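Look over this record as teaching material.
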Amino acid sequence: MNYFTPSLTVVTLLFLSLGSSRVVAQDENTAPPKAAARSIPILPQTTDNQDQTSAGDQADSLQPDTRPLTGIQTLSLGSEQYRHSYWVPGFQYGNTIQSMSLAESAPVTSWSSDNYLAGNLSLLSTWSRAQLAVNYSGGGFLSTNDALGNGYFHELGIIQSFKWGRLSVALLDQFTYLPEALFGFGGAIRLGVPGISTSLAPLSPDLVSNLVPSQSILASTGTRYSNASAAELTYALNPRSSITMAGSYGFLHFLEPGNFNGAQSGANLGYEYLLTSKDSIGVLYRFTSFQYQGLSQAIGSHAASLAYGRKITARLALQLTAGPEIALFRVPVDGRTSQVLPFVSTSLVYGVPRGQLSFGYSQGVSGGSGLLAGSNSNQLTFSGNHHVGRLWTVMGSLSFARNRSLTSSASLPSTDLGSWVATAGVSYPFGPNANMSFGYTALIQSSSQPCVGPCTTNFTQHEISLGFQWNTRPFVIR
């Protein structure tokens, strides 16, 4: 099936990288170890001099973020700089104990336990004008809940970038195959994040929320696979201004009946102007089309917005985008063929001493998470982490999503659904290559009306999680 394709891609990359690492190993058997190989740093939070690391030192160790303000990815604090191409394999174990199951039409109120075992892979390959970054996690799970049963899960993030003079090109892909919604999956033990958990994991694609098929309704249950692919081209007109063009395609398919499958495609055009070395402004137009399998309804969305960004490596990444959005309906809704809505996309990442804070908010038309045929979606997220002492890390997050249906019918009544996910946890490293984490997650779903099909719209689930991750030292490719 389609969801095996990314796994085969990763296996191929692993095979090629393994061959390269064997060549390096043969060279090491006939020559003294090269000092340059030690330029790949270990996990920053496990170093002995972490308390003395200043913000200036952190900025010097990071490569500045070059993502365009009017592009299709959210801005970041920067990425680690490495002199070598490498790959890092590892494995991960996770156990979750939850107070109820959402796998049936009515929630099972007895406690159940799920055990996850996965292999992880992170790869970074750099050439003079190109870079490939891969993060993958995949494995199986065993559940004591008969309604959920046993199964598999896969997560993949790929970025292939090129640069020729003024022209930059990025090819991106995000894939998930999960037994439940990605929104809240994994809690504090990183089951929902592909790749290894140390700083050696390269940046994964972080597509803006309206380009990725929405999974922010917890009531849409069942195994599903989702993919979002995008291509982005940025051309620098001069040292201060640039234009960005992008196209994307994504889908969300369910294996069990009860939810409906959907697909979306989009086009993006933006202009950015640098006010200073840290501040930029821009204008953006984005078109998105939503289609649904077995439904005559389809939605086209046109959004025009202004944007502002501020980037300080290792300290601040701020992105503000706002403007009007027009939703066009193929089948009229209450006699209307269009509706004007606000379009907002905001993200903030702030580096603090010994930690990091993140905030995100988005509002606009989304696909409906397999439960609604289009929705006006509001999503808000707070998260942060802080290193306590030399080893412990405390983390927490609070996410809220509200989805109001844009269309209605006899089988799809108009409804308003709210989803809450609150997580708190701690992690403790065992050397530079292993860590253990513990956490608690609350998942809350509320609805103005009951949903149609095998789903439950009002519930509260408590989840306790335990996780362990281990990875090898990096294998140098070149």
Notes: The chain has one domain: 2-42+63-476. The helical segments are 5-30, 55-61. The radius of gyration is 22 Å. Confidence is low (pLDDT under 50) at residues 1-55.
